[in-house]
Amino acid sequence: MSENQQNHVSLHPAIEKLITNIETVVVGKTREIELSIVALLSGGHVLLEDVPGVGKTMLVRAMAKSIGADFKRIQFTPDLLPSDVTGVSVFNQKTMEFQFRKGPVMSHIVLADEINRTSPKTQAALLEALEEGSVTIDGETRMLQSPFLVMATQNPIEYSGTYPLPEAQLDRFLFKFRIGYPTKSEELDMLGRVEKHHPIENIQPVLSLEDILAMKKEAAEVTASEKVKEYIIDLVSATREHHNVSLGASPRASIALMSASQAYAYVQGRSYIIPDDVKYLAPYVLQHRIILHSDAKLSSTTNERVIKDIIEHISVPFGDK
């Protein structure tokens, strides 16, 4: 099946309406919008690695507005503190009590902009939120709102003054992908839309948070056959045995690939996963979860090439739902 699986005719009607609404702001990025929605429905998070100015922030803002969600942006800088992310307890002299002030992470959709520009200590403040959907401050655990989606960005070109994300942090992101530059026709369309005013100013919700929560429950009911589960395990296990890989994907990757496939199948209007769902999503789920041998890096081998090689050599089960 072609990588451009966004050209479907049987998308879930509500999802199709959501994608169309977001596309009034973000031009020509149907695949990236669809993947972001899959992350939202599966309870995962997204790492966007791309150069500035290609529409990462607009994608996140448009999604938040389209579902009426609380949206916060965190600009990660070297002097950012963990409490600037999670929140802090402040002593109120009038009431003589400590009052909690919520941090920006306590929102439905969070843009963690240039996440690799802050210290590892502050990066780690997101770990609990990404994995558990909660934050612990002064010994008290506070649950985050649902739905909850973090979309983090980092610049792949400029490494000066950055702190690379550790493996434990990368493993918490369901997907990693790039948005990429628009085509000439898409960029012309974009200029026409922003000529008088930016379309983000007028975008309106087409779904409610209650709709999203209901769809999350329905997506979790999507079934996976034993053959599909075995295919997922075969792909993940192959990352641990590949000759260019020093550290393969963990069992968390298997769980992530299945939950993403459930949500993706739901987006496509199905109640079951097909192997092509898994095959399509595997690069986005696995490429950031492996570490290559140093000699492989020296020979210009990339994570993307390794995952592509694995997908090509693992047989796909056919005739199975």
Provide a descriptive summary of the structure in words.
The chain is an alpha/beta fold and 321 residues long. It folds into two domains: 1-220, Rossmann fold; 221-321, Magnesium chelatase subunit I, C-Terminal domain (Helicase, Ruva Protein, domain 3). It is 43% helix and 15% strand. The chain has 14 helices and eleven strands. A five-stranded parallel β-sheet has the order 2-5-8-1-9. Strands 3-4 form a two-stranded antiparallel ribbon. Strand 6 and strand 7 form a beta hairpin. The longest helix is centred in the C-terminal third of the chain and has 17 residues, at 251-267. Residues 1-9 have low confidence and may be disordered.
Q: Please give the alpha-carbon distance between the first and last residues.
A: 16 Å
CATH superfamily of the largest domain: P-loop containing nucleotide triphosphate hydrolases
In spatial order, strands of the major sheet run 2-5-8-1-9
CATH architectural type of the largest domain: 3-Layer(aba) Sandwich
Shape: globular
Count the domains: 2
Radius of gyration: 20 Å
Name of the level-1 CATH class of the largest domain: Alpha Beta
| Low-confidence regions | 1-9
Strand content: 5-15%
List how many beta strands DSSP finds.
11
Number of helical runs? 14
Largest sheet: 5 strands, parallel
Into which percent range does the helicity of residues fall? 40-55%
Give the overall average pLDDT: 90
CATH fold group of the largest domain: Rossmann fold
